[in-house]
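PROTOCOL LOG
Step 1. Enter all chains and additional molecules of the complex.
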Amino acid sequence: MYTQALNADESQRDQTLPAPDAAKLARFQAVIDAEDKIEPNDWMPDAYRRTLQRQISQHAHSEIIGMQPEGNWLTRAPSLKRKATLLAKIQDEAGHGLYLYSAAETLGLSREAYCDQLLSGKAKYSSIFNYPTLTWADMGAIGWLVDGAAIMNQIPLCRCSYGPYARAMIRICKEESFHQRQGYEIMVTLAHGTPAQKAMAQDALDRFWWPVLMMFGPSDKDSMHSADSTKWKIKRFSNDELRQKFIDATIPQGRYLGLTFPDPDLTFNDATGHWEHGVIDWSEFKRVLAGDGPCNRQRLKARQTAEAEGAWVRDAARAYAAKRSQRQATSQVAAE
Amino acid sequence: MTEIATPLWEVFIRNRSGLPHKHCGSVHAADATMALQAARDVYTRRGESVSLWVVPSSAIIASDPVDRDVLFEPTGSKIYRHPTFYDVPDEVGHM
Ligand SMILES: [Fe+2]
Ligand SMILES: [Fe+2]
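Step 2. Run joint prediction.
Step 3. Record the structure below.
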């Protein structure tokens, strides 16, 4: 996922930009309307470029930060099988971050620039990763629900108008299915286990359910910034549409587990065929996104520490590469 | 950040299918050896690949999108380059 919740600052953008050339703009829109792709060297309006730079990099940051809550349980996984699975999943998330940075870089900003935006706290990432993972059951809930929500969000992005982003999303979606299934398997095992294990699974669902619904971003009536993204075929479904799809898909899965959703207002509407949920606490969402969630500081600090402690490795690699290429140049001169 | 940027490499992988190497993304690495290792870690986690190429991104020469029509449009009218342009009598069967 990790993209939609974060576009709240779209309103501040682009008032300063000059109006783009009308003929170029028409050609650009015609390519999009024909469902063709916009590629890195093609002309694009600055606002399109900026929207994608922000969205793709925030998506990448979310993948990278998202490794932390799961990394928390890596050394305490209950079996070798679960440990190998969790490690593979976290490696995939690193891979997703890298595919996405690679796509974002084609828009003319360097990897270093994007990373600096994250490390300085300027860039946002998905609010969900600012919640703590308190028990092993959270590994189940994250795979099942967080990756499940991510899939809902990411599948339409495979058809995004920007070629490199769409291609990265296709790779990512192929890998996400394993993430959700392994999480659900953990939930099945716990829910059908001892009463203590079942209670642990229920507690994880209780804590993650509402934050996961918030992953889809503000309700449509409060988010008026998606008109451009829709016109540009970056966004194909509204926040509420995606949230609804997710809820409809997830409730039966939760019922199979014999768990209850922490929403007394959750009801099935026979007329529409959809599940209806209670009121989402958007003040919590805003608070977490603004930096005041349970783990915001810890997540950012971990990234900053990793970056600082890896500096000598990057230095050494660069020094080695420089020395080697210099030696090669000298031996070439000597041979001539 | 004051650090010098780490060079960018384009990554191409060849699948088991026997098709040619195909571009799949990019990695950052100080040198070619590390670029190959990073490409392996990032782009081949599920046995997709039997061969990897990494190429410094700065070495890629790309056609200009502005020239697209000039370069590629002329072949559009040359329908006689396609087999379907030619009539073969039904009696002859598949050819
Ligand atoms: Fe991911
Ligand atoms: Fe995932």
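Step 4. Note key features.
Chain A is about 65% helix and 0% strand.
The CA atoms of residues 75 and 83 of chain A lie 8 Å apart.
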